[in-house]
Amino acid sequence: MKITKQQLRKIIRESVRAGELMLVWNSLLPGDLIDVDTEYELFRAVRITKKVSDVSQHSGLEPGPGFVGKDRRGDHIVFNTEDIDPESYQKYIFTEGIQ
């Protein structure tokens, strides 16, 4: 089977994206505050309570790495790594350090 340049580019892009997501997943820990893209409220602040290797075991989401978290209202949500704004961690770490 011959792979075209376009197929190879797609494979490389997907591999790079998967690597980026694993870096995000590996760098975040329970207790971290981050922004999560939710279907209902766009981005909202969520405190990570648990890291999970497969969110499908905790929700109806597609299989993959993610987190369980709690928002400011106290609602628990399960979200995958793709829904995180990775830059938000830095935003919150600096503001929480000031308080």
Write the layout of secondary structure elements.
Layout: H1 5-27, E1 33-38, E2 42-52, E3 66-71, E4 76-80, E5 84-85, H2 88-98
Antiparallel strand pairs: 1-2, 1-5, 2-3, 3-4
Tally of domains: 1
In the CATH hierarchy, the architecture is: Roll
Query: Percent helix among the residues?
Result: 25-40%
Main CATH class = Mainly Beta
Can you count the helices? 2
Order of helices and strands: HEEEEEH
Are there runs of 5+ residues with pLDDT below 50, and where?
A: none
Main sheet attributes: strand count, strand direction, barrel closure: 5 strands, antiparallel
Strand order of the largest sheet: 4-3-2-1-5
Structural class: alpha+beta
In short, what is this structure?
This protein is α+β, with helices and mostly antiparallel strands and 99 residues long. It has helices spanning 5-27, 88-98; strands spanning 33-38, 42-52, 66-71, 76-80, 84-85.
